[in-house]
Every structure is written in structure tokens, then in C-alpha cells.
Amino acid sequence: MIKKIFLAMLFTSATFINAQETETSILSFPNPIEYDGTEFYIIQSKQRSKTLFQEQYIPKDENFRDFNQLIDFSFFNKEIETELAVRQKVESVQQREKKDKFAKVNVTESPDGKEFIVDYFISEAPENGDSYIEYNIYRFKNMENGGQKSFLIMSYAKRMYGDLKSAAKALAKQRDHLMATMIEYKIPEIKVAQPNPGK
Q: How far apart are the first and last CA of the chain?
């Protein structure tokens, strides 16, 4: 089940060109949202399945194919076992470690045990395009939305292009700040607006 969840999140279209100010948030979030002093604009907002609603945001004038920063909200209007979802994500990165020498994953649990954060590094060296290191932070949170149990995965990705070794060192120095930003971020109130699977 969890594998299906993450597959649904991964198989998203890469045809978006620029951050948009006109896209409407299906989660009723503001557009743009502010994160770590930067305005992020919505590039897609879709109902992926009966229970999954996904939105992605990037800074203005960036594009989906070679972004520097990306925020993703994947909201499930049902209860999901947090530890199972976390384990699935960790295992996917650990599998990558076999062929990606820069891949590394960590797990952090909140003091009250209600939230988990998985943060990790991966690298890509495509035949066409620039090589990059990507640092990801996934925040897993059980919620109650209008009296109904729900679940949110908020993630932030930051890429640095060019020499992989130098980029990895630069991103590693930013890890503490980026982690603190995610932990302290106040998630906007979620109100699913007019779900439409065919959007």
C-alpha cells in the first residue's frame, strides 16, 4: 500500500515550465507561500487519487526540470501509519546507496513522537544536462482535518549543480539551517477545495 502511495507521488508530469501565479491550490493554500525568506509559487495542484492531493511550489522564474528549490505537499484524507511510511522512504534511499556514493539518509523523531523527518542526499549525473547534488527533507505528520484523520508529507528539495564533491560539501554545511527551517515551519491550514480527479 505504501509503495503505491509513493509511486503515485513520484509519477508526476515534468512538463511545467515556470512557477505560476494563476494556478489554484486544491488545499486552499496561499499562492505564493513564503518559506525561509523566499516566495514559492505553485506549479501544480492535482488530486492524484481518491485520497491523495498533491501540490508543488518553486521560486518564481525557476522551472521544474532544473529547479534549485522545490516544495511538495502530499495530503492524504485518511489515516496512514507514520512509521510504515517513514520506513518505506528510508528503504528507498538505502537502495540508492548501492549505486550513488553521495546518497545518505537520516531519521529524526519529534520529542512528542507525532512527527518524523527523513532527510537525505542523492546525486545525479545525467548524460544530458548538469550534474547535481540534491538535499531532501521529508516531514511526516498525522493530522485531524475537520474531525477526520488525515496525513501530510511535506518535502523540501534543494539542488546544487556542478562539481558533485564541492556541491555535497556546500549542502552539508547548510543542513542544520535547512532542518531547523522545516521543523519550525507552520503548515497552512488545509481545506480541500472542490476535488476533481480529472483536473
A: 24
HEC profile of the chain: CHHHHHHHHHCCCCCCCCCCCCCCCCCCCCCCEEECCEEEEEEEEEECCCCEEEEEEEECCCCCCCCCEEEEEEEECCCCCHHHHHHHHHHHHHHHCCCCCCCEEEEEECCCCCEEEEEEEEEECCCCCCCEEEEEEEEEEEEEECCEEEEEEEEEEEEEECCHHHHHHHHHHHHHHHHHHHHHCCCCCCCCCCCCCCC
Within-domain flag for 190: no
The tally of domains found in the chain comes to: 1
Is the pTM higher than 0.70? yes
Q: Decide if 189 is inside a domain.
A: no
Q: Using CA atoms, how far apart are residues 139 and 113, in angstroms rounded to an integer?
A: 13
- Evaluate whether residue 94 is within a structural domain: yes
Contacting residues for 103 by C-beta, under 8 A, at least 6 apart: 93, 96, 97, 120, 121, 122, 123
Is 108 inside a domain boundary? Answer: yes
Q: Look at residue 72 in the predicted model and tell me its pLDDT.
A: 98
What domain range is 128 assigned to?
2-184
Query: Is the pLDDT assigned to residue 22 strictly greater than 90?
Result: no
